[in-house]
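STRUCTURE:
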């Protein structure tokens, strides 16, 4: 991802635009064929003095005029006469950014695909692994580890759709000239734009987006949302790997997650970095909303915000996905600890199940009141919920009523949730996402 947004790739994108523009203009008879050929020969990254380009860019404020100066000076008369014909600086830079966004989304889709596939396998493997569901960080009802992962997998599927949608709106050619009218491109401007888009593998468009930056802001939001999801996943891993819970742990290895002073420690280091990346990504979303506010036909400072915000968002997202692949691929699940923590509730995790069974006989309100009192007594005495409930029912002369307190019988749709999520993921993967 760093390479996609690095200096070499950025320069290459500018030069690719100039080559595609000249070739398309030659095809349409706007400039001589010989000029297009010489422009193509001149537009080589290794022929550009990048130190001089940086120096002159600081003087001009933007890099394209200094780039065209070099091409004109080194390329000869035809290059000097016809390079950059009708274009404006932002046409070149925006089209190059569209190429970088497209390549970045390719990479994100590929990594998200790997992560989702790993999650699907893990979710299916543990669709019957019972554990405590936690609401408000408290033990709630029985669930399965597979069902927990299924929620993330469905979110990954939605993110994959968002990436695909982002590409449709952001990987678009920019060729509308100085004031957004395309006048300098001549009478064949629309055909020229279509041909340049085809040559660069971008979508064509009929309106300028020099100051319409919503699609790029959407890219920042989408990559940041992916990073936020992974930060949430990492927080759960950190919480579930606590010594007193111990239901999962990160992969182990010599000195992995070791402390410099406490030899017993194995810190969840991958998850910690993911939490940090999610925080950075969250902070970056507002930048997109700011650069969207550029007015008139050209920005006066807002555009420059993109130059750091876009690479940062994609780098955060790309790095987070790499780490999440490592996390899920090496995650160690401890079913014994999950069962132990389930038992440690003394049956209270089945309070909802008991209440719903009693509701058919006592009415829901009375059932809730009875079970609530049983839970309070069991917690105060440190005894099993089942025994307290049995005594209460006996005292109320409720006869012939069997309350099933087997946690495996109160899992609802967990198995179906797992399979539905996997099917959603596989269908999303099959419908246009990069493999």
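SEQUENCE:
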């Amino acid at each position: 991802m760093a390479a996609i947004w690095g200096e070499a790739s950025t320069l290459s994108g500018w030069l690719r635009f100039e080559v595609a523009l000249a070739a398309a203009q030659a095809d349409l008879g706007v400039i001589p064929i010989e000029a297009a050929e010489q422009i193509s020969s001149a537009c080589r990254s290794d022929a550009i003095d990048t130190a001089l380009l940086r120096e002159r860019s600081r003087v001009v404020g933007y890099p394209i005029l200094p780039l065209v100066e070099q091409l004109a000076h080194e390329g000869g008369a035809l290059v000097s006469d016809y390079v950059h014909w009708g274009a404006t600086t932002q046409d070149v830079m925006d089209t190059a950014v569209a190429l970088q966004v497209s390549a970045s989304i390719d990479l994100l889709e590929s990594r998200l695909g790997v992560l989702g596939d790993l999650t699907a396998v893990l979710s299916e493997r543990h669709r019957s692994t019972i554990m405590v569901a936690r609401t408000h960080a408290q033990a709630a009802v029985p669930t399965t580890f597979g069902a927990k992962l299924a929620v993330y997998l469905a979110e990954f599927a939605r993110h994959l759709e968002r990436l695909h949608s982002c590409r449709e709106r952001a990987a678009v050619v920019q060729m509308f000239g100085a004031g957004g009218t395309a006048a300098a491109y001549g009478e064949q401007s629309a055909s020229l734009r279509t041909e340049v888009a085809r040559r660069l593998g971008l979508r064509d468009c009929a309106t300028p987006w020099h100051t319409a930056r919503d699609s790029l802001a959407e890219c920042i939001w989408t990559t940041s949302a992916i990073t936020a999801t992974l930060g949430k996943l990492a927080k759960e891993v950190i919480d579930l790997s606590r010594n007193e819970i111990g239901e999962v742990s990160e992969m182990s290895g010599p000195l992995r997650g070791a402390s410099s002073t406490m030899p017993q420690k194995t810190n969840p280091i991958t998850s910690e970095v993911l939490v940090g990346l999610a925080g950075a990504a969250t902070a970056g979303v507002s930048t997109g909303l700011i650069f969207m506010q550029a007015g008139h036909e050209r920005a006066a400072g807002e555009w420059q915000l993109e130059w750091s915000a876009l690479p940062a968002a994609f780098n955060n997202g790309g790095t987070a996905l790499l780490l999440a692949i490592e996390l899920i691929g090496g995650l160690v699940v401890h079913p014994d600890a999950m069962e132990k923590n389930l038992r440690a509730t003394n049956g209270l995790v089945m309070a909802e199940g008991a209440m719903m069974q009693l509701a058919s006989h006592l009415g829901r309100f009375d059932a809730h009141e009875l079970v609530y009192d049983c839970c309070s007594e069991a917690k105060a005495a440190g005894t099993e919920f089942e025994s307290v409930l049995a005594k209460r029912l006996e005292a109320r002369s409720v006869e012939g009523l069997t309350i099933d307190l087997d946690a495996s019988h109160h899992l609802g749709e967990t198995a179906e949730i797992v399979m539905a999520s996997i099917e959603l993921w596989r269908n999303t993967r099959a419908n246009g996402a990069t493999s």
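REMARK: Residues 356 and 364 are 7 Å apart (CA to CA).
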